[in-house]
Specification:
Length: about 140
C-alpha cells in the first residue's frame, strides 16, 4: 500500500531549529501533539532522541479514552529530519507498523514541514490526515504564542 503524503501547511514563520525543537522537547510536545481537543499528559512524554531511541506519549480524547503512541526512532538529523516507526496497535485500527518521515526545510526565516506517513488502512487514512493537519495547526499556535 502506498504511503500517503500528508499535506504540508503553509510554511511556518519560525526558523527550523525552533520548529524541530518543538517536535522533540518533552516540555513542548504536550501543548500541540494530537488532534484538536485531545490532550497529552506531560508525564506520559518520553523522548530518547537518537537512532534506536524511543518517542512515547499518550493522547487522551475528550471522553478520557487513552491512545498510546509508542514509536522507535530510526533516523534523526537535527534540525532537518526525524523518522519514527509506530508499533502496530490493532485495537486502535493500526494493523501494521506505520513509518513517519518528518522533513524540516529551511526557507529563509520560515520552515516548511513535510510529513510522509503510512501505510494506513483505508479506514484510518482520512483520520490520520485530519489528525496531522490539526496537529500542524496546534503547533503553529504554540510557536506563535
Amino acid at each position: 500500500m502506498p504511503r500517503p503524503k500528508s499535506p504540508s501547511p503553509a510554511p511556518s514563520t519560525h526558523p527550523g531549529d525552533v520548529v524541530f525543537k518543538a517536535w522533540v522537547d518533552p516540555e513542548q510536545i504536550p501543548a500541540w501533539w494530537g488532534p484538536e481537543h485531545f490532550t497529552v499528559p506531560p508525564e506520559s512524554v518520553s523522548v530518547d532522541l537518537r537512532s534506536g531511541g524511543r518517542y512515547e506519549l499518550t493522547m487522551v480524547d475528550p471522553q478520557g479514552k487513552e491512545y498510546p503512541v509508542r514509536q522507535h526512532i530510526t533516523a534523526v538529523e537535527a534540525p532537518s529530519l526525524l523518522v519514527f516507526v509506530h508499533e502496530a496497535v490493532p485495537e486502535y485500527g493500526l494493523t501494521d507498523e506505520i513509518t513517519t518521515r518528518i522533513e524540516f526545510h529551511d526557507e529563509g526565516a520560515q520552515t516548511r514541514v513535510e510529513i510522509t506517513s503510512g501505510p494506513y488502512s483505508p479506514d484510518m487514512g482520512p483520520n490520520a490526515s485530519q489528525g496531522w493537519e490539526q496537529q500542524f495547526d496546534k503547533l503553529e499556535r504554540l510557536l506563535s504564542a
